[in-house]
Amino acid sequence: MLGALPARFQPRIDVVDEGPVLRVTAELPGMEREHVSASVEDGAIVLRGEKKQDVHSEENGCYRLERAHGRFVRTIPMPEYADPGRGRALAKFDNGVLTLTVPKTEPAPSASRTIDIS
């Protein structure tokens, strides 16, 4: 089958626990920082963006198109102990890789107490 339609782009994501922080890494090859955004919604990190199609892909005589492009939204649920809100998460974009550093919260103290038995 010649000239198959390219798939919609979905960035690949890693979430790694690094002690006091979670590191979220998203591969965004061929994208510029201006074409991606990150936000916190309901305790999850949401990545939105658009990978533009290469102008040359639409020329006549194109034999095969496999590279994905288009708009995307990725929602990355965070565990309870992660705190992406309150402006404390940091983001860095370098060579098509977005890295977010999300601080972890201290576990809440146990709400238990001893009951005297008489």
From TrEMBL:
Family note: Belongs to the small heat shock protein (HSP20) family.
Extent of the signal sequence: none
Entry coiled-coil feature ranges: none
The species this protein was found in: Paraburkholderia youngii
CDD domains: ACD_sHsps-like
Pfam families, sorted: HSP20 (PF00011)
Gene3D superfamilies: 2.60.40.790
Transmembrane segments: none
Matching InterPro entries: A-crystallin/Hsp20_dom (IPR002068), HSP20-like_chaperone (IPR008978), Small_HSP (IPR031107)
Listed name of the protein: HSP20 family molecular chaperone IbpA
